Amino acid sequence: MSKERSIATLSLDGGALCFHFINTVNAWRGPNLHEYLGSYEELIDWCRKVNILDEAQRMALLRYATSDEPAAATALQKLKRTRETLYHFFSAIAENDGITLAPAVLEKFNKALASALSRLQFEKTATGVQATLQRDDTDLMAPLWMVMKSAYDVLTNEEHVRIKECETCGWIFLDHTKNNKKRWCSPLTCGTTDKSKRYYQKKKEKAGE
Predict the structure, then answer these.
(1) pTM given for the model
(2) Are 118 and 105 contacting, i.e. CB atoms less than 8 angstroms apart?
């Protein structure tokens, strides 16, 4: 019996917040068996799981979403469209550092990035100034701002050759292995699935000889 899929059981194999967000579908390659962000409440559960926004802001956003369901549904669909843009963007980066990136995808990515970074500001702290994102408990897109900031950080701070797409499910992840040869988001799940497929394919080919 397969385990129930939910935010609680969702694996965090991306290595970066933006990749955790992309990986909130069961698969980008092949049939997608589950949508983890089926409601705005599940989005807030995901925010809690990856520890973004504080609990007070998460609950404020959830209350706002509950009080205006049409607005919450619209925001969730916009978030999912941006998630798809992020997938296609980073899939192209993983393939060839974006050489064949579709112009329409790049345009959508830059638009989402500009919107998020327009909320970036510096605040004074006990140890000096630090960059923070403005807080807005009534903007249902607030979780996306942190995701896009993460995408910016990955693109500017990480080696692009370490941005990978899982050969089995299409999840995006950072490869922090020493030899940079990681092929799957998780060797225990997708790695095992891929090896099993190859084994049975070879067995089938031998049987047909």
Answers:
(1) 0.89
(2) no
